[in-house]
Amino acid sequence: MRIELNGHSVETSVPTLAALITEQNYEARSVASAVDGQFVPRDARADFNLTAGMKIELLSPMQGG
Prior knowledge:
Layout (H helix, E strand, L loop, with lengths): L1 E4 L2 E4 L5 H7 L8 E4 L2 E3 L14 E5 L6
């Protein structure tokens, strides 16, 4: 299925948001996730099923001042 990940079109076959995070080599504990503009808590990712066309944002915290 084709989804949008951080503004880029991505082809994936993983079923859940948690699996996508792993597939895309993100550190699950250090990213925030949103799907179609709605925040998805870390403990809900394994049960969050993906469908074609979803817009997913994975954001890592930035340090600095």
